[in-house]
Known about the structure:
The protein is an alpha/beta fold. It contains 9 helices and 14 strands. InterPro entries: Gfo/Idh/MocA-like_OxRdtase_N, Gfo/Idh/MocA_domain, GFO_IDH_MocA-like_dom, NAD(P)-bd_dom_sf. Keywords: Oxidoreductase.
Amino acid sequence: xxxxxxxxxxxxxxxxxxxxxxxxxxxxxxxxxxxxxxxxxxxxxxxxxxxxxxxxxxxxxxxxxxxxxxxxxxxxxxxxxxxxxxxxxxxxxxxxxxxxxxxxxxxxxxxxxxxxxxxxxxxxxxxxxxxxxxxxxxxxxxxxxxxxxxxxxxxxxxxxxxxxxxxxxxxxxxxxxxxxxxxxxxxxxxxxxxxxxxxxxxxxxxxxxxxxxxxxxxxxxxxxxxxxxxxxxxxxxxxxxxxxxxxxxxxxxxxxxxxxxxxxxxxxxxxxxxxxxxxxxxxxxxxxxxxxxxxxxxxxxxxxxxxxxxxxxxxxxx
Length: 318
């Protein structure tokens, strides 16, 4: 499948473009930028064609799908333009910063018979399927709660994630991960029961936050996130007779051998797993969705609603 990339964002250059170049089912056709020099340099690095301007990429009939790693606030207009051009779309998370807009785009994709997939990669890592199986088998008894945390060290002052007009802030950048973990493991309707979003003095966006979610069956999710913190990427599922802990949960390297910890009255045991490449798996899932003509969207919509609910509960977007 011939894919074009709309922008030269850091995540594209660091993770997605190398994975596309190595993927047996994808041909990296072109990379577009409004900056001709940046397009040329990125295209040279990944041995594809440079394109100046996103419109020119969408006008290329030889490109079947596009990857959109633009800032969150720019996703909606360019995803809409890509769908109108008949392209399949893999868009960075969050798909949009407005649940209504997310629904509109997903409806448009279905109406045009093209695939629109949000690029949440960690759910495609095999370790989480193992965790779900262990919970289903009663390894920790009846599930009671999820605790999930994703925090990263401080970003440079000029980083786009400090710009509210581009959809910046900790919730949309790192908060997406624990929110999606709650959606992934606590199936069924979740509601926001409380939330806080903190602003470091001098910043125009939230730099940290926490949220409490509750499922209809009473299981709770305690979420924490921030982007001026020591690095943490973990979750734990607690049950009536034990708990499961997963570290390096959201962005593990492809060569990282996961190790799930299971604690119970009998003690603590380690459950080692082979390395898995969640980036390659995500691209395979995207190609498969294009081939079959179907792409599940329920989790994307649930996530969008929860992100909006957290902002409201924290006193924003009332």
